[in-house]
Amino acid sequence: MKQPELDRFDRRILAELQADGRISNQLLAEKVGLSPAACWRRVRTLEEEGVIQGYSARLDPEKLGQGLCVLVNLSLQRHTIDSTAGIEREVRSYPEVLQCFAVTGNADFVLRVVVPDMASYDRFLNEKIFTLTGIANVHSNFALREIKNTHSVPVAD
């Protein structure tokens, strides 16, 4: 996939939008040194090219009663396209799973899961993870505290 050519204005726009996705076009244009029309066109182009994938609000899981964060390592019994695709499809459907990565190393997948408490995590394991076909091993790591959690991608000039 071809990467779009980003100049310093595009990079500034991306940095500003990552810091505040609700910024007005007028203020964004002022901050990056463009006219509002030119800024709007660039933002639209970045969206159309898929550089900007969307906008969302960051929520505090604890304030929503989802205070237990677990990093779950899944290892597969066998590595086939069909079994992997099935697991990926199922995991995507679980609202408790915020992120899922196919990885190398000691596991095949790493999931970031949030649930209210240990009893909820036990139900999640028994009703969802342990019912997946082809899972050989599940290893859970419980987060003690969050040190850094960002979705901002470096866009240096």
TrEMBL record:
<dbReference type="Pfam" id="PF13412">
    <property type="entry name" value="HTH_24"/>
</dbReference>
<dbReference type="InterPro" id="IPR019888">
    <property type="entry name" value="Tscrpt_reg_AsnC-like"/>
</dbReference>
<dbReference type="GO" id="GO:0005829">
    <property type="term" value="C:cytosol"/>
</dbReference>
<keyword id="KW-0805">Transcription regulation</keyword>
<feature type="domain" description="HTH asnC-type">
    <location>
        <begin position="6"/>
        <end position="67"/>
    </location>
</feature>
<dbReference type="InterPro" id="IPR011991">
    <property type="entry name" value="ArsR-like_HTH"/>
</dbReference>
<dbReference type="InterPro" id="IPR011008">
    <property type="entry name" value="Dimeric_a/b-barrel"/>
</dbReference>
<dbReference type="InterPro" id="IPR036390">
    <property type="entry name" value="WH_DNA-bd_sf"/>
</dbReference>
<protein>
    <submittedName>
        <fullName>AsnC family transcriptional regulator</fullName>
    </submittedName>
</protein>
<dbReference type="GO" id="GO:0043565">
    <property type="term" value="F:sequence-specific DNA binding"/>
</dbReference>
<dbReference type="GO" id="GO:0006355">
    <property type="term" value="P:regulation of DNA-templated transcription"/>
</dbReference>
<dbReference type="GO" id="GO:0043200">
    <property type="term" value="P:response to amino acid"/>
</dbReference>
<keyword id="KW-0804">Transcription</keyword>
<dbReference type="InterPro" id="IPR000485">
    <property type="entry name" value="AsnC-type_HTH_dom"/>
</dbReference>
<dbReference type="InterPro" id="IPR036388">
    <property type="entry name" value="WH-like_DNA-bd_sf"/>
</dbReference>
<dbReference type="InterPro" id="IPR019887">
    <property type="entry name" value="Tscrpt_reg_AsnC/Lrp_C"/>
</dbReference>
<keyword id="KW-0238">DNA-binding</keyword>
<dbReference type="Pfam" id="PF01037">
    <property type="entry name" value="AsnC_trans_reg"/>
</dbReference>
